[in-house]
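Handoff note, outgoing to incoming analyst
You'll be picking up this chain. Sequence as last confirmed:
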Amino acid sequence: MAKTTLLFGIHMHQPVDNFQWVIEHAVEVCYAPFFEVMSRYPQFRFALHCSGWLMEQIEANHPKLHAQIMALAKLGSIEFFSAGYYEPILSVIPSDDRVEQINMLSSSIEKSFKQRPKGLWLSERVWESSLIPDLKRAGIEYTVMDDYHFQCAGFEPSVLDGYYMTEEGGKKLALFPISKKLRYAIPFLSVETAIKAIKSFNRRKDSAAIIFDDAEKFGMWPGTHEWVYAKGWLEKFVRAVLDDPSIETMHYADYYKEQCTRGITYLPNVSYYEMGEWSLRADDATAMERFKQEMGQQRYEAEGVKFLKGGIWKNFLVKYEESNRIHKRMLELSQAEIRHESPDFNTSLYKLQTNDALWHGVFGGLYLPNLRDNAYRYLITCENLRYSDELVLLSDHNELDGHEKVKAVNAHTIFRFDAAHGGQLVEFDSREACFNWQNTLTRRKEAYHQRVLENKPSSQTPPAEDGIDTIHNAVLEIDDTLRDAIIYDWYLKNSFIDHISDEHFNADNFRHCNFREFGDFANQPFEVKYDQTNIRFSRKGGSAFPPEGRGQS
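Most recent structure output, in case you need it:
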């Protein structure tokens, strides 16, 4: 009997220094019950990626869970996948940092679990072919990404049941396509439907059903803990797989070693479909969704997926100035001379490179102030190691917007000013507390706001008929308080902003950003001059105050 090979993998990650209660909750409702079930079935082969910081937390605070993972590793159940130790988006950190972070995690896995990973979990499945030489330098032979990546390059779903080879400058890497069909079936649909989806890959003797997805879907996503554990979905699924003679679980490493490549591929810069949508500006994302609806789901899946694409991950650095600022400050620090002398500097830099605070999708990301606070904590830690207590004034054009930024460092604080938008104060860092008091976020229109206001689910996936809905189908109950909180700013919200208004100005219209503005000083460039002890911003701008007249200031 021909067998379908099941390549099953899970990815575990929490942002560096996430709230401790979040970690405890994740362990309680997701990680611990998952490995409790898997420990009863060591013959089930699967892959595991766990970010380095999260594994540190598990080892230090959850010894039973760590022991179960170690026991499964010793029994040969688990194949470990590497990545950047602190889960960066690899394509947006410097080349040497990529290699070092991957080596850090691989070495940690080798020390604890006696495996040196050959596979890599591609954080947020953000692919750029320029990664290949660095992955090879770090000893990586294969990685995983969505079948969507391959479809964007013209591949039909019917041929995505094995691995493909690619190269960059002669450096070769194997790519495994993760099945969307399986991602949306496991664990959301019934066990019978999930097994049927796996068996649909039984096209030839070397076909593989490939899934590698977030572990958090097995307990942390809304409704999944009851479905997966209280109602026994996971245990029933594992038993069904093991009891079915037509399905064989296998490690990616063994499949890669035993089976031949499907051929050659070159993929575009892309992540998963939803990420491409989220990285677009709101109106473009809405237009893209409208085009998809006009095309129809059936035609989109048959033809449109190859041509109707969203943005790339780096668009987040264009979409959000706050994200770009953190990223460019990270790049600035990565070039600092002190990093060659201070291991503590490098550790803080690598923690700063954690991806979660740089983008926004279905989860909070950049919108969560605690994640931005964590990023700035490590940024300022690096700066403290970099500078003494003497006054330092520096300027740069690192944010690539054509306007000068000025940084003032003294014994207690670090100030950064941006000439591009009203000469604003964009960083007010306490060196002692490692805290940026100016860590604000401008309120922007997001594509999902319309669905929130209309109380509608996303149209990307149909509601489940024999299981539970994914988070993409969630229908939220919206009240007037939340609707009133959806406000858009017409200027970047930082400090030292000059407004010219009238007697109608008050706290309420300031909050709603609908006060009367008679000047052009809040969001236009200023000129900057500075010497060793002083910084001066100026602008020759226009005003229309009082309303019937115009003036110069």
